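Work package 3, deliverable 3.1, input record:
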Amino acid sequence: MQLSRRHFLQFGALAVGGGLAIVLYDAPWSEILPFVDVFAAGGLSPRAFIQIHPNNTVTILSKDPEIGQGIRTSLPMIIADELDVDWSQVEVEQADLDQSIYGAQFAGGSMATPMNWDPLRTVGATGRRLMVLAAARRWGVAPADCTTSAGRVLYKSGNRSLTYGELASEVAKLPLPDASSITFKKPSEYHIIGKFTSGVDNFAITTGKPLFGIDVTVPGMLYAVIDKCPVFGGTVRHANLDEIRKMSGVRDAFVIAGDPHTNNPSIEPGVAIVADTWWQAQAARKSLKVDWDTTAESPTSPDQSTEIFNQKAAKLLPQQPAYDIRSYGDINSALGEPSTRVVEADYAYPFLAHATLEPMNTAAHYKDGKLEIWTQSQTPGDGRRLAAQALGISESDITVHMIRAGGGFGRRLRNEYVVEAAWVSRKVKAPVHVLWSREDDFSHDAYRPAGWHHLRAGLDSKGRVTAWSQHLVTFGEGKKTASSAGMGPGEFPAGRVANYQLGYSTIPLFLRTGPMRAPGANAYAFVGQSFLDEVAQAAGRDPLDVQLELLANSYNGGGDPHYPPERLAGVLRQVAEESGWRKRKSGNGQGMGIAAYACHLGFCAQVAHVSVDSQNRVRVHEAWSVADVGSQIVNPSAARAQVEGAIVDGMGQTLIAVDLKNGAVVQTNFPQYPLPRIHQTPKMNISFRITENSPTGLGEPALPPIIPAITNAIFAATGKRIRTLPMTNSGFSLA
Amino acid sequence: MSLSLKINGQPVQVDVSPDTPLLWVLREHLDLKGPKFGCGVGSCGACTVIMNGNAMRSCITPVIAAVNMEVTTIEGLSEDGNHPLQVAWRELDVPQCGYCQAGQIMSAAALLQHTPRPTDEQINDAMNGNLCRCGTYVRIRAAIHKAADQANTAHSG
């Protein structure tokens, strides 16, 4: 018998703090907040998550978007363990978007684990308690004499038992148990949490089932491409629409006037081609001739070039920062003291594209004032809001199905493809799947912003860091920085050195920027941890010692209070131990580098071992990673996978760049954007340092340190310091 | 133009322009969504299928080139989803987002057909046309070795 949603267990409302982690959002974390309605739910309703069937199988709903972080497996694991069922009894089903039932539904900021750990344990434990109460009532015994195991309630160690399935209808009538009667399992009692668990979609993935957004079909569905101006903000003067409309399979072609302001969340200008198949739409595009107007909204597009930005930055870098982020002590006196040794360097890194392997796409069906959307958005609530805005309909008239995404990395925090699908569906009065080509994807991303840093550090006669000055040249209008282009007052080593100055200056940018996996951190770790290595070399000291010494300091209130320095020191010491850091040998083309960084509530230290040949071809042989994300790893397989992926992702960031020329992106497909391949992947040694802190996420914290660990290792091997990414600019490549 | 193809052992007829990439014929005319669109230029391998024993990038293979060929997609790799590679992929929990994995498995299947016990170097050569944006390469390598071990054990047993 198939039970409907109405037969879900009636758990009743259970208040949980949706704002739990929000206070921890600091710059640049706040970048994802505009996309997320963290306070959407007044309180979670656990009945929505668990459905117990008469045959004692259990359906558990997964609430958040799955983008490869493994959340469709790990969040239901939490519920299942506390509910005390076997994982083999569990089927996972994806929840639709309804933040009034499921709480905030999004994928970003490595927030799924910290925001759901307590609420979902409560959901599961409440379910288990209700099972016990129902069984005790039926037997007329004390609940305290009942235990549970593998989806059964047992009386006094098993001489009577009932399955959860046999109790489901009674449980539905029970009132919610008192919160004080809900107890969580001890970690030693977990039989799912903490166990290697293969992803719930793996059978479908390995057999090619239609699982991803791109695979969604709806009866009568048409496909659309939208040709947009290579220069952001360009509008359509004229297009040969009549010719296009005559092409094979093409149903319609039309101009979208759109809003050329790249940061406005409405639909962008372009030409839509709608056809029976996507390939027909895409093939027709080869005959499309568009006269673009790039003057109206981007009059400075000739200035919007990487070369010009580099020149502007070079002028600004040696000057005083236009705006202060944090300053204390007396930086000029400290650096000016005759006994102070000053180390000075400039660092830079490029724009990056997210390049998720599944290009942006969404299916939408607008009919009679109602809209249905199938999307892989990381922020489906924001997608619904924007679609409602663009179509002038109410959000309550929109149903959003959350479909597995072929990668996210922050790209799908934005929702312009959702709006496009909705808009085109209404226009052509049919269900429409909008799918971007790879070239569309590269040329209309929201890029990780490029940046430049001028750094100065002062060393005393004992080689201790007494002063640190950092000037960030970034993008923005006046004081307002572009998305993901700002720094915060907790940036290491702020609060750990006696004299400190961090400030920034801005260059105007028309290009759209946005968060990319470990936003901010992915760039600032490279800069800060490379320069620290440089400072340590100048002092003739081990960079590990210099970093540990700084972490033990506290000035001007210390560093970011959400990142206790002893946790970073802990992972640093452990990775040094595990990698044999103290006994390392460098030179002759071999070298090891170390780096650490704390972000997104996680702490990670990494060591890389590289060799460099006479043609500056780098091979990363081995990497060591130690992360502290609290007291419990939910799914060790997925957790290790996040670190493995972060190491490869970070390694790739030594090679890739997006360049801008006259307002248009130069790199438009993978051959020009050499992401790492299997032969470049190092051996990996991955550990977790278990500490008495609430569990936090891993999508992001394991990425930032590997970049400077590799470039520091290259220095150890060659004596050449890579201060600009990609390292191909300095003649280095990955073997 | 009506074309006769043989896909996963089944003869099929499609009416498409002969220069249509095989990928889009599979996905949009034959409803085989396993092969994925990633780049359209044969650079990422997400669209990989096996044609007469060789791994091919279906996004740059015109459908006309598949006439009189045996085409196998991920859907036809095994009857029950239990090809040693598919099993190993699940046992080692290889996928992260999973989008590239059908292409990875098909490249690996072509490799094992020719080279039942590949070395790391042979795996590198056969697999470096398949991009995994999530970086699952360590597990892909391990899963290929595992599948090779199991297939060989099964044969010798």
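The domain at 2-76 of chain B is CATH 3.10.20.30 (Ubiquitin-like (UB roll)).
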